[in-house]
């Protein structure tokens, strides 16, 4: 039931997630951060059941760090996206089965180029400029398509995300009050709650 | 009967010759030095190009294991790479289990355990390296040494490889408790310069601080060697 959505601008990427964790009819928490920081210029928003989200997130983060220490530097966005995809793909026919979570990987390379990738639990990988995971797709794709234009500024991007949040809060059956928004630019990662 | 060809055979006087021979390989290796200061540990290594055509700049002998943990060695280069990669993996695994960085004690013990495994296995040889592992434990800087037998010990300052004795004597005379980072750096550089072939290109230096590692680049090493030479 997680909403994860994001868009890529001229020099930034935004990924937003809802903050709620639910268990049957109870809302356990409203301020859960589902967007993982892989390094100073990469974020990975993960949608799925709590345990799967956490364990896969940790696996991605630690493997990302291991590669950094083995090779001397962090991977760039394209390499990271393909690496995460290969983790998903190797798992699907493994003994323990697929990693039951989907994700949106976004970030900015050292030369300032932003990219956003859509990943799903079977190992699909798509480079996108705007998109969402889960039920948010039904409500937001139209809105994102309508509002998106190439080379958005950061302020325009944040406005679009606010419109998306308002749309979810208006029309989505499941009440999602708090959203965590993370923006990656060449300077680093900014985070705030809406 | 020769007791030195198989690893898993003790000699009548209680020695494991293969392990001793591995330590000989270490003694023939290039020199490395570790110095523990008040808030940092310095690791220094001798680099040597095997021919004029090899680019000495590209030789990296201080391995970063984690954001504030580094390792260097004397002995067989390739064995060091393998051991470093195993230890890097262990650092990340520890973080998954315990949601916390491993202390340098833990990592040093892990490395020495890996080395010990290969003193009790048939068909395999010990790692031909002794390592110096530098990092923090409870916010205190620590320097550890491991060797092919799997022994692990903590040091204030030490050196390995060729000329280790000469360097250790020098360190014994000049090391004192509570060295500031700059002084520890100068001490390490001076210790190395005594035994390394002339040329600052042949020294690699790394400073391990509480939250980061600083690998000195070519120019910084050159600066240091100049200052050290002037002080003498």
From TrEMBL, chain A:
Coiled coil: none
Matches recorded under InterPro entries: Proteasome_beta2 (IPR035206), Proteasome_bsu_CS (IPR016050), Proteasome_sua/b (IPR001353), Proteasome_suB-type (IPR023333)
Superkingdom of source: Eukaryota
Keywords: Cytoplasm, Nucleus, Proteasome
Location(s), subcellular: Cytoplasm; Nucleus
Keyword RNA-binding on entry: no
GO cellular component: cytoplasm; nucleus; proteasome core complex
GO biological process: proteasomal protein catabolic process
Subunit: Component of the proteasome complex.
PANTHER family: METALLOPROTEASE TLDD, PROTEASOME SUBUNIT BETA TYPE-1
Entry protein name: Proteasome subunit beta
Organism per entry: Paramecium octaurelia
Species classification: Eukaryota, Sar, Alveolata, Ciliophora, Intramacronucleata
From TrEMBL, chain B:
Keywords: Cytoplasm, Proteasome
GO biological process, any: ubiquitin-dependent protein catabolic process
Domain Proteasome alpha-type subunits: 3-25
Domain of life: Eukaryota
Keyword Cytoplasm: yes
Keyword Cytoplasm in annotation: yes
Main location: cytoplasm
Entry GO CC: cytoplasm; proteasome core complex, alpha-subunit complex
Family matches, as Pfam families: Proteasome, Proteasome_A_N
Compartments where located: Cytoplasm
Stored PANTHER family: PROTEASOME SUBUNIT ALPHA/BETA
Family affiliation: Belongs to the peptidase T1A family.
Protein name per Swiss-Prot or TrEMBL: Proteasome alpha-type subunits domain-containing protein
Organism for this UniProt entry: Paramecium primaurelia
């Amino acid at each position: 039931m997680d909403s994860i959505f994001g868009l890529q601008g001229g020099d930034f990427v935004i990924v937003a997630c809802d903050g709620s964790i639910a268990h049957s009819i109870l809302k356990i928490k409203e301020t859960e951060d589902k967007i993982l920081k892989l390094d100073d210029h990469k974020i990975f928003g993960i949608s799925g059941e709590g345990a799967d989200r956490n364990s896969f997130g940790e696996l991605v983060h630690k493997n990302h760090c291991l590669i950094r220490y083995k090779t001397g530097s962090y991977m760039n966005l394209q390499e990271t996206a393909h690496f995460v995809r290969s983790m998903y793909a190797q798992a699907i026919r493994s003994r323990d089965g697929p990693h039951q979570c989907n994700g949106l990987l976004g970030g900015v390379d050292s030369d300032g180029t932003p990219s956003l990738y859509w990943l799903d639990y079977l190992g699909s990988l798509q480079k996108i400029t705007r998109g969402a995971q889960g039920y948010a797709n039904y409500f937001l794709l139209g809105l994102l398509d309508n509002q998106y234009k190439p080379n958005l500024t950061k302020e325009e991007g944040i406005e679009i995300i606010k419109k998306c949040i308002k749309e979810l809060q208006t029309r989505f059956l499941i009440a999602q009050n708090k959203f965590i928004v993370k923006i990656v630019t060449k300077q680093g990662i900014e985070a705030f709650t809406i | 009967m020769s007791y030195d060809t198989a690893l898993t055979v003790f000699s009548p006087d209680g020695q494991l010759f293969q392990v001793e021979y591995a330590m000989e390989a270490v003694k023939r290796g290039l020199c490395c030095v570790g110095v523990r200061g008040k808030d940092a540990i310095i690791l220094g290594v001798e680099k040597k190009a095997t021919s004029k055509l090899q680019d000495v700049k590209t030789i990296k002998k201080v391995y970063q294991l984690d954001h504030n943990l580094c390792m260097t060695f004397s002995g067989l280069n390739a064995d060091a790479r393998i051991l470093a990669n195993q230890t890097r993996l262990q650092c990340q695994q520890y973080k998954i289990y315990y949601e916390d960085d491993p202390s340098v004690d833990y990592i040093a013990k892990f490395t020495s355990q890996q080395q010990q495994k290969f003193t009790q296995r048939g068909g395999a040889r010990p790692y031909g390296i002794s390592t110096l592992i530098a990092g923090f434990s409870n916010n205190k800087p620590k320097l550890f040494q491991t060797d092919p037998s799997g022994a692990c010990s903590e040091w204030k300052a030490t050196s390995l490889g060729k000329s280790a004795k000469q360097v250790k004597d020098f360190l014994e005379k000049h090391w004192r408790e509570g060295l500031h980072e700059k002084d520890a750096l100068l001490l390490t550089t001076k210790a190395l310069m005594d035994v390394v072939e002339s040329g600052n290109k042949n020294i690699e230096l790394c400073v391990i601080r509480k939250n980061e590692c600083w690998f000195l680049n070519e120019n910084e090493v050159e600066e240091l060697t100049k200052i050290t030479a002037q002080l003498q």
